[in-house]
């Protein structure tokens, strides 16, 4: 464990990295005793600083939902971060690439909560009951630290969250079998990735149930109107200024954005 003063210093450094678009040395290298509890506290301190500057928490994101990513990170469960309202974009947006350090894109589904949801013991059917809408989404992930990164670095860095893009067809959770939403991700007219939503822990709502129970352990939960990114079902694709992105979810619609 590290001290509260060190946690605050790490959060301040990450905030500076985000503002200046310059990655910092990994917190795990600066503070060798950094543990998961420290990392989530650093994330919370960073979020508090952003909120103090006018941002609002719009929801949450879940990462490391695939077994392959968990093994690569030496984890046995996902991680999570917060979504801020100034990092929300709509289908068709022209996004300034300079907002990020080294952005990458992932294909996901986003759940919009229709009611509050708290643990413990939350299960998939509780998530489905509490969800008002499910929409196609892209997550822009970004690193504010140098690489390679320990899992504590990723968590402290708000689980690598950069921004979210939503679009496509708005559906109710029972309209279709959301385990079998397929999508292709194209960059500049070439399909780079494809996947199906069942790759997210067997069911896109499984990660959200996990999140609700984790938030309960720290006195939190999901609120009506919040948006939750359920996790990626493709590998991340690098993006740079000038790239045009198209994510095709078939019957559930598509999302198109460009980076300028």
UniProtKB/TrEMBL annotation:
GO molecular function, one term: 2-oxopent-4-enoate hydratase activity
Domain of life (superkingdom): Bacteria
Location of the Fumarylacetoacetase-like C-terminal domain: 74-255
Annotated Gene Ontology cellular component terms: cytoplasm
Segments traversing the membrane: none
The entry's keywords: Lyase
A Pfam family reported for this protein in Swiss-Prot or TrEMBL: FAA_hydrolase
Protein's UniProt keywords contain Lyase: yes
Gene3D superfamilies the UniProt entry points to: Fumarylacetoacetase-like, C-terminal domain
Keyword Lyase: yes
UniProt cross-references to InterPro entries, sorted A to Z: Fumarylacetoacetase-like_C, Fumarylacetoacetase_C_sf, HpcG, Hydratase-Decarb/MhpD_sf
Listed name of the protein: 2-oxo-hepta-3-ene-1,7-dioic acid hydratase
């Amino acid at each position: 464990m590290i001290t509260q003063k060190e946690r605050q210093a790490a959060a301040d450094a990450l905030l500076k990295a985000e503002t200046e678009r310059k990655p910092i040395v990994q917190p795990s290298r600066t503070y060798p005793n950094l543990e998961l509890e420290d990392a989530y506290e650093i994330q919370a301190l960073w979020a508090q600083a952003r909120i103090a500057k006018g941002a609002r928490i719009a929801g949450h994101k879940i990462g490391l939902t695939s077994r392959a990513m968990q093994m690569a990170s030496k984890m046995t469960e996902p991680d999570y971060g917060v979504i801020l309202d100034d990092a929300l974009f709509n289908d068709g947006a022209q996004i300034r690439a300079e907002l990020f350090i080294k952005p990458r894109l992932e294909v996901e589904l986003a759940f919009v909560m229709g009611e509050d949801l708290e643990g413990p013991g939350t299960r998939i059917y509780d998530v489905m009951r509490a969800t008002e809408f499910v929409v196609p989404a892209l997550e822009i992930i970004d690193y504010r630290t140098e690489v390679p990164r320990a899992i504590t670095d990723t968590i402290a860095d708000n689980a690598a969250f950069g921004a979210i893009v939503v679009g496509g067809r708005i559906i109710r959770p029972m309209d279709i079998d959301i385990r079998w939403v397929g999508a292709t991700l194209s960059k500049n007219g070439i399909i780079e990735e494809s996947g199906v939503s069942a790759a997210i822990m067997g069911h896109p709502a499984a990660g959200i149930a996990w999140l609700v129970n984790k938030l309960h352990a720290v006195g939190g939960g999901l609120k009506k109107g919040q948006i939750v990114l359920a996790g990626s079902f493709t590998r991340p694709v690098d993006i740079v200024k000038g790239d045009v992105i198209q994510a095709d979810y078939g019957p559930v619609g598509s999302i198109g954005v460009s980076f300028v």
